[in-house]
Amino acid sequence: MADPKDNADTIPAPRQVERLVGHGRAELEVLEALRARRFAHAWLISGPQGVGKATFAYRIARFVLAGPDPFARAAHASSLRIPAHDPVARRIAAGAHPDLFLLERTLGSTGKLRTEIIVDDARRATAFLQSTSGEGGWKVLIVDAADELNRNAANALLKIIEEPPGHALALLVAHMPARLPATILSRCRRLRLDPLPSEEIIEIVKSLPANEASEKTIVEAALLAEGSVTRTLLFLEHRAVEFARMTREVLEAPSKSRSPAALKLANRLGTRGAEVSYDVVFDTIFVWLQERARRQAADLDPRAEAAARLWAEIENRKREADEYNLDKRALLITSLKDVAELSP
């Protein structure tokens, strides 16, 4: 998916979002853990990309950092909401709270965003959790996203998760938790966020002040986005609804007509020359393969493994193409051909 950081004018940063739409079950689970004083020191928040995992992590962080005793606050709270005017919420929204650390991909020596989280940044995060709280309360680490940790970074983070300091909380956001080492998975309490209904996505998009799209376009984008607010906004921001629709049509076309449709899509992208359109097309392919793999796995269909494996292979190819500026048109045609060769 195109990086939401490139669309900051349209997509609010997760740390700035106060309102929670959906995910009530997950919020209740966190509250009940606090009330019972069985609050895990590490949580793995998983689910499809763009459903609000980072936003939810910041919601937990605000609640924990809003005072010295989140357990007592939870006993009387009906939600994790901390008002936007609260001093803690304001500092978090500004990225200026001394007891909150965000571990994410950083810029490399070339000035481009790295394709993974490196060990030096992970070590800075662990040192942060081991340091004394600036305000005498909790220290919170958010990892966005944990499945972008390289092996050495994951090992560095594991050490602090295995032996956490007191009043330290790690919130790991993961789009594909299966990529994480089993040692990390086994030490986190898992919390899955489900895709949002399209009706709730439409409500969110309409409420954004920067939204200028027609209701018809918003509805189509939400339906194509498969439960993701971020994906919906990216479609609207870059007028990429057409490309998402065309990609779904190629993927779902009868086998005989897939090749001509794939070439037509690749040629359309070539004439546009828009980088984000390639991202939208590949993201649509990834979501389609995810859906297929999950559906087949639920039916105990052995073909699920092939779909999941192809999804990972194509994503790795695209990451390499992004890093080395390879021919993405050829990559798209090859990827669609590989998808077509999956057993129906």
What do you see in this structure?
This protein is an alpha/beta fold. The chain folds into two domains: 4-192, Rossmann fold (3-Layer(aba) Sandwich), CATH 3.40.50; 238-340. Helix content is 53%, strand content 8%. The chain has helices spanning 24-35, 53-65, 70-76, 87-93, 119-130, 151-162, 182-185, 198-207, 215-224, 229-237, 241-252, 255-272, 275-298, 304-324, 328-340; strands at residues 42-46, 100-103, 139-144, 168-174, 189-192. It has a five-stranded parallel sheet with strand order 2-3-4-1-5, sandwiched between helices. Helix 8 packs across helix 9 (215-224), helix 9 crosses helix 10 (229-237) and helix 11 packs antiparallel against helix 12. The longest helix has 24 residues, at 275-298. Mean pLDDT is 88; it is low at 1-8.
The gist of it:
The chain is an alpha/beta fold and 344 residues long. The chain has helices at 24-35, 53-65, 70-76, 87-93, 119-130, 151-162, 182-185, 198-207, 215-224, 229-237, 241-252, 255-272, 275-298, 304-324, 328-340; strands spanning 42-46, 100-103, 139-144, 168-174, 189-192.
Helix and strand arrangement:
Layout: H1 24-35, E1 42-46, H2 53-65, H3 70-76, H4 87-93, E2 100-103, H5 119-130, E3 139-144, H6 151-162, E4 168-174, H7 182-185, E5 189-192, H8 198-207, H9 215-224, H10 229-237, H11 241-252, H12 255-272, H13 275-298, H14 304-324, H15 328-340
Parallel strand pairs: 1-4, 1-5, 2-3, 3-4
User: How many beta-strand segments?
Assistant: 5
Return residue spans where pLDDT drops below 50 for at least 5 consecutive residues.
Answer: 1-8
Portion in beta strands: 5-15%
Oligomer kind:
single chain
Structural class by SSE content? alpha/beta
What is the averaged pLDDT score? Answer: 88
If you consult CATH, what is the topology of the largest domain?
Rossmann fold
User: Quick one: CATH superfamily of the largest domain?
Assistant: P-loop containing nucleotide triphosphate hydrolases
Cα-based radius of gyration, to the nearest Å: 21 Å
User: What's the total helix number?
Assistant: 15
Task: Using the alpha-carbon principal axes, give the shape.
Answer: globular
